[in-house]
Amino acid sequence: MGSRITTALDGALARGRINAPAVLLAALAAGVAWLLASSLLHQPQTFFAPIAAIVVLLGGVGARAGRALHVVLGVSVGVVVGELVALLDWPDPLKVLVAAGVAMLVMSLLYTDALPLIQSGVGAVLVIVMHQPATAVGRLSAALLGAAVALVFTLVLFTPSPSRLLADAIGRVLDACAAALRAGAESLRAPEDGGRDHDGEAERTAVDALSTLDSTRGSARYLGRWSVRGRRETARREEMDALAARLVTFAVDVTALSRAASTGRLELGAAEVLDGLADAVTHFSSDPRSPDRARATRNATDGVLATDATARCGAGADQMLLVADGLRALTGGRDRVGRR
């Protein structure tokens, strides 16, 4: 019980550390958006500005331009529908029902994504519930201002490094690969638990990391095209993107090798080989952008192959060589064709 609580707390803290930068940036943008809307628009209602800033910023970096458009369109439809329904002499609950329903139905004609539908419904409800002297143009201007503040924060003031984004995502995939290799080694050391040990968790982790890497590549390309910092990092970003593209094949090969270990197709002596490859992968994952780490990883891989690694892997020797060659290719060494 205690270990489960500790694990849950560790997971919560890890998620907090990951989300904290985006949360703080969104909070800062919300404050700035509110201040600008109050100062420039002179409207009694400026809540659409901070709402738009928060919605745009809390999400993937590469999708923020599209999200800004969704927010503005959603709020526009919601405000227009809400203003029209507010003119009717109906009870407020009926007004909310009709305004939210009509606004979301209108947006559903344009989008299947939930975000613009939510924004239109929320916008309509806010207009009805907080109906005060304020023009529809003012509310729309506030939403547009909030979205603009969010984009300025992303593309000019607080732009994340696209090469670092890619390097971090690559590192997570490599960490998942190292974990899969170690899981295979543990299966060899405890063959009676092999099937239970390799229950697909390592593979699922690798697949999730690859999915995150794919979306990160899109974000990095977006930043590289539209942000000042991204344009300065074009060469480094393209280098990391090429590494990310090669990483998919490597992850597939690692998964196959780990599965071979868990199903008894490797000899017991292969456990040490798998651990050696896992150590090399982990060393590289800490900073895939470092040439020194890439060189050290190649040397470590050669060290693993310098022993009787092939003989100890038995029937899985070919799969082990694929992983070793793939790791060398990732770090700038000879590729598989060259080795063969």
TrEMBL record:
It comes from Pseudonocardia sediminis. This is Fusaric acid resistance family protein. One of its GO terms (cellular component) is membrane. The lineage of its organism: Bacteria, Bacillati, Actinomycetota, Actinomycetes, Pseudonocardiales. It is found in: Membrane. It comes from the Bacteria. It is a multi-pass membrane protein. Keywords: Membrane, Transmembrane, Transmembrane helix. The chain crosses the membrane at residues 21-41, 47-64, 71-90, 96-129, 136-158. Residues 33-153 form the Integral membrane bound transporter domain. The keyword Membrane applies.
